[in-house]
Amino acid sequence: MFEQLKEYLQKRIAVTDEQFEMISKDIKVKTFEKNKVLVAPGEISPKAYFITEGLMRCYSIDSKAKVNIIQFAPENWWISERNSLFNEPSDFYIDTVEPTTALLIPKNYIQDAAQTIPCFADLNYKMLNNSIRFMQKRINMLLSATAEERYLDFIKLYPNLTLRVPQWMIASYLGITPESLSRVRKDLAHKHFKV
Amino acid sequence: MFEQLKEYLQKRIAVTDEQFEMISKDIKVKTFEKNKVLVAPGEISPKAYFITEGLMRCYSIDSKAKVNIIQFAPENWWISERNSLFNEPSDFYIDTVEPTTALLIPKNYIQDAAQTIPCFADLNYKMLNNSIRFMQKRINMLLSATAEERYLDFIKLYPNLTLRVPQWMIASYLGITPESLSRVRKDLAHKHFKV
User: Fold this and answer.
1) N or C, which end of chain B is more exposed by having fewer CB within 10 Å?
2) Test mutation, A125, A126, A157, A181, chain B, max B CBs within 10 A
3) C-alpha torsion A6→A7→A9→A11, nearest 10
4) CA max distance for chain A
5) Residue ranges of the domains in chain A?
6) Which chain A residue shows the shortest CA-CA distance from B71?
7) A2-117: what fold?
């Protein structure tokens, strides 16, 4: 479990085995069953999750009981509830879509690790900016892209999720109806595009 | 001009006049006419902008020549092209909607300032996380909210923009048609809601 996080970090910054051990003493591993709700609106989550196996998602349920998926987090992704960093209650749910094993990361982990390993501050800065770039792109897609463009973007971002996730959840993430998604998939199949 | 930035910072972190002078020596002031394009897709922007007067926006133009507005930046807002932080070409345009005076902030300003004033790192961390929270909320609104809910959220976020910005631009930001926006405004007026 910890090896996966160590590899993730070592791909991005210089971390020795000793340094990794020092900064990892407060991390715990936990396995959750499918459909386990870890954070609900109104709660303050004390942790971020680094997924080593399985799949989590972040979502809202609106006044019409429609589920709106903000993010999927498969293996080697992080997922966290950002309001909790400011000790404010969550706007969203986080749950497991599959049985999931995750590292439970104390919420100021990267900030604290930066005290031990200065280049962790750079990593945090890059990860936060990448989240912003990623979300700007998503907002742009939601404002402008066709259902087909959104779906093609989704399979580029999450190449192994199309068979793991129910179609209605993908439609929810894309902001289209399940019927539109079904049409898009049929059209792409006709064009011999592997979906 | 510089006073406005100093006040902005002093509201958020402890900065003395001397410290502010030290970290501000590379900042320039510039006034731009209306409709001036400052960054276009494919370009690398060397700067962020802190608006002291006027209004900028960040947007894309899609394959159907439709304009999609990602962000407005009126007085006391920051606007920047995030790809440039990684020396990658911009995905978006940034231009002025009104004649605008802005401080031209070197792109690593807050990181560099953190060398002089350690609490700048906290400010940067908070600002980046707030951007992420803000965009998660916007994605959620685009996935789930009605045209009226989106408009009410817009006037809460940008209280003084509804009269300054052409209606089609507000519709573009909200991801609705100008006709829908016109209907929403009429409905709200009937309910005696000040729009």
Assistant:
1) C
2) A125
3) 160
4) 55
5) 2-117
6) A136
7) Jelly Rolls (2.60.120)
